[in-house]
Amino acid sequence: MRILHLTDTHLYGDPAARHYERIDTAAALRGLLGRLEGLADVDVVVHTGDASEDGTAASYRLLHEILDPFAAGLGAPLVVVMGNHDVSAVYGETIAAGERVAESQDRVVALEGGARVVVLDTSVPGAGYGHLDPEQLDWLRGVLAEPAPGGTVLALHHPPLVAATTLLRGLDLDGLDELAAVLAGSDVRMVLSGHYHHEMTGTIGGIPVHVAPGVTNVVDPVGAGESEQSLALSGASLIELGEGVPRVVTSVFPSAGDTLGDPGVPVYRFDAGQVAAIVAAAGR
Fold first, then answer.
1. Which domains does the chain have, with CATH numbers?
2. Is the pTM of this model over 0.85?
3. pLDDT value at position 244?
């Protein structure tokens, strides 16, 4: 199984809006997809959340206007996960997805060949951190009780890992031990996530976890200390699941949506005080 993993497009309903007053997020997504024109033999395109920045119906229509024909050109279904900037109810009302579940977006997407993608909505209205209710874990446990012939990929926005930066640790997913207990011994072959805006790998319950870089910008996690910095870059990952260890390759390009046109200049740089304020406002 070959998976194109995208995340964190942060689209706006207003075409004039710019992320951090600098990034045209629709142009960033279109530019990244243009870089992937030679891609082939993809079984599914998975977008792991923060599809929208403003949670508007117009932003979700734009997302599918851009991604639906791209995925169709690959002959692959598109799976979209909800993130902390998304509004699950608006997405469910806007996009005619027959498998949507009320105001949540927990669902199972069957793929050709017997594999499946299980989607968990970790978003918390009005917050930046991630959470899974006991009812969601019970639902996941029931789904995984019947293995899929081709195995399962779990997709959720908030990574089931410990973040690399102070800011992201304040906006992490809680309940990792509970989730690990549900996943133990299951047919889940890979967990895909976004949220961090930079590539990261790890494991939960012995299962590989991959975090893709953001489409709208890429966080620099090395040497961040108490600060946080993001650059005008766009990235995507290609994941191949075979008999052995998963193969993951990632490409990162200068953002096509950068109005400044200089990826070396940070899109933002938050000092320790700004990081603390964000965590206080949006963290748990």
1. 2-282 (3.60.21.10)
2. yes
3. 85
